[in-house]
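User: Can you predict the 3D structure for this chain?
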Amino acid sequence: MRILHTSDWHLGRSFHREGLLDAQSAYVDHLVDTVRAEGVDVVVVSGDIYDRALPPVDAVELANDALGRLLAAKVRVVMTSGNHDSAQRLGFASNLIDSAGIHLRTSPHTVGAPVLVSDRHGDVAIYGLPYLEPELLRTVWELPQRSHQAALDAAMLRVRRDLARRPAGTRSVVMAHAFVVGATPSDSERDISVGGVSSVGLAAFDGIDYTALGHLHGRHTLSASVRYSGSPLAYSFSEARHRKGSWLVDLAESGLGSVEFVDAPVPRRLVTLHGTIDSLLDDPRWVDAEVAWVQATITDAQRPPRAMERLRRRFPHTLVLKFEPAGAEARQSHTVGTRVLGRSDDEVISNFFTDVRGAAPTVDETPLLTQACDACRLTEDAAS
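Assistant: Here is the predicted structure, written as structure tokens:
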């Protein structure tokens, strides 16, 4: 049996205010083409279908289009809810949609009820575990502690009980949306920590033929049978070096066979640049960045005027501008308290300007700042 493992579509998400719907639509095209070309039997999507609980209409339309095209390709789909999804909205009418071959698993109460898919070697039991919020399950499942480990352990206990009742030789696939120890997060995932306990151990999935993980946006191979597919698109500059795509998984008669990564199309490369503004604007090494999405960090001692405007003349797709002047660490070595103690309001504001942009207020700015301080003091006096 051939399974395509993907996750974290985040339909409806933007990238630093740049719309991604066209890129996400191109990924759906790629997904359907891969299913047809590779003879995929089942597509598993391990959570975060949408970017927020109430997705925009065009994101819902794209999800509907993706599912319709996958059905037309005669492939089964198992989809779980992630921490960004509304389990209730995504799981609407799931019992009716099951009959069409689209299996939405969004309720924790169904984790021990697999989707059964058969091939010439027998059944494959696919257990779709939605994102499990420990606080919501603590009482219902009588969890021993308020942690993701406790919630996942309880879910896997139900999975193993069901699997033990299946005929010998039944192969198993688990889909989970969690932070598993050994993987590295990026900047674009939402924190799911509960009292500082957000991770689960790899041993939770022992004995399962393949575990299709979602939540982290980078692909990871935690063991031969436990993997993150990562998101199909980059959603932060911390993912600039990620290789995006999905896992093509073959299950043999006795369990896991081969696993191959299928690269997804890249709508626009991500590049991070670091240096003085003149070096970035003049250095021929950065010619490839002229068509990329750019995050630029300027290291000039003083903040250059119109920096974003000037950068965009060469790099029109610059989205993020940071200012990290050389020597800033030394200027910021003292605590805020020691740097403002005994200083007037004017001095504090003047020092703030110097720290932020690397230069003191100009002769034109100084009287304006003084007037602002005076206005604040007058307002406080009038209030008292």
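The mean pLDDT is 90. The two ends are 76 Å apart (CA to CA).
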